[in-house]
Amino acid sequence: MRARNQKKPQALNNEVKSPLPFPEFISSTDHSGLSDAKTTEPLLLTIHQLCQLESALTVGGIRHLLFTKGHNIPGVYRFGRKLLFDRAEFVQGIKKGATAKIGGGSAS
Prior knowledge:
The chain is mainly alpha-helical and 108 residues long. 36% of the residues lie in helices and 7% in strands. It is elongated and about 70 Å long.
């Protein structure tokens, strides 16, 4: 064990400094492939944000869909316990029929 009066090794005392100040480093990063710079809509939405933007969807309806179909629906992502939705991908999945049959057995 190291005595209290000993200095730390040189590598631990020096911090790594960026050659550019932090704000310029962020602004010089190219994020053009992530989203259109003109839109302010977030890439991922919570269930409540999605339902506010898409009036045909309800929180209960989406939760029922997730309960019966699981989370393997296009545009649905998990971030820990939080559910996030890619609006365009989720709506496209609905249009392609990924949610055409939600639950229940066959009616005889």
